[in-house]
What does this fold into?
Amino acid sequence: QVQLVESGGGLVQAGGSLTLSCAASGSIFSRYTMGWYRQAPGKQRELVARITSGGNSNYADSVKGRFTISRDNAKNTVYLQMNSLKPEDTAVYYCNAVRGFKHYWGQGTQVTVSP
It folds into this structure.
């Protein structure tokens, strides 16, 4: 079992930056692929970025070059650095942990980008 708690969301103007954090507990964090997803009102949840246990990462095309995912296995934490934010980045951002058939989700943190 893995518990995930996100933090760092908030209101920011377009062009600004935010860093989201996701603290994990309850299992061996370093073995999990960690991801950030987002869901805007009226839209499906979509993958934003993902980082494997080996440190390989991939990004949605819409955030490439602006967002960076990283992990600190010593702190059981995954981060999402978001730069050059756009109003279309407004969504609830969710942390995800995957290992095999096991999927875990955090409760989400709201990110709002004003024009």
